Amino acid sequence: MDGAGTAGADGPDFPARHAPRCCGLGELDALVTQCRACPRLVAWREETAAAKRAAFRDWDYWARPVPGFGPADATVAVVGLAPAAHGGNRTGRMFTGDATGDFLFVALHSLGLASQPTSLHADDGLTLRGVRLTSPVHCAPPANKPTPGERDTCRPWLAAELELLSPGLRAVVVLGGFGWQAVLPVLVEAGWQLPRPRPAFGHGAHVVLPATERRQELHLLGSYHPSQRNTFTGRLTMPMLVDVLREAATVGGLMAS
What is the 3-state secondary structure of the chain? Predict the structure, then answer.
C-alpha cells in the first residue's frame, strides 16, 4: 500500500475517510491494519505486545488492528466485540489464540463451517466456508472494554465490511450485547429497516429485516458472547452456540433446513 493510502492514519477521521471508498475486502483489510485513530487503543495494544505474557514470550506480537477473517462471498457474518490482548492482538487473526476463539471454532467446525476445530496462528491452514468473522472494534481494548467513542470511531470499518458482503449476505450473528448495539445503527445506515421498538439483545434473538429496493432480506441473530466468563459459568454452552450458528447457516444457504 502506498503512502497516500495511510496518510493521516492517526487521525480520528481515518476510518470515516477511507472505509467507504474501499472496493473490496482485501483493500479494506489492508487499511484496517494501518489505523491509529484511537490513541488509548494504540497505546494498549503496543504496551501489551511489549510486555507480553510469559507463555508467549517468544512471539512477535501483531500489535495492530485485526482485520476480519473469512471469504468475500460469505453469506453469514459473525460479529464479536474486539480482539483479545493476547489473542488476536498477538496472532493477527480474528478470534485466534484465545479461549473465546477455541470455543467458537469448535462450534463452527462441528457444522462444517471451519476446516478445523482449532485456530492457533495465522498460518495454521484454517479456512472458513461461507462465514466471515469480524468485530465492531478492531484493536484490543484494556479490560476487554472499548468505550462508546472508540466503537463509533471504528464503525465505518464494520459498515464498509457489511456493505462489501451485502450482495450475498443473508444472516448476521452478533455475539454479545456490545456487538448488538454496534451493529444496529450500521444496518439502519446501510438501508435495512429495523422494527420498532428496536429489537433487544438476547441469546436466541432472531429478527428478520425485510427486503427493500436496495437490500435483500437479512436475518439478525443474537448469541451470548463465548467469553470464558460465560462458558465457564454455563451461561453459554456449546449446544446453545451451535444452535444459533446452525440457524444462521441454514438461512444463509450453507446447510439444509
Answer: CCHHHHCCCCCCCHHHHHHHHCCCHHHHHHHHCCCCCCHHHHHHHHHHHHHCCHHHCCCCCCCCCCCCECCCCCCEEEECCCCCCCCHHHHCCCCCCCHHHHHHHHHHHHCCCECCCCCCCCCCCCCECCEEEECCCCCCCHHHCCCHHHHHHHHHHHHHHHHHHCCCCCEEEEECHHHHHHHHHHHHHHCCCCCCCCCCCCCCCEEEECCCCCCCCEEEEEECCCCHHHHHHCCCCHHHHHHHHHHHHHHCCCCCC
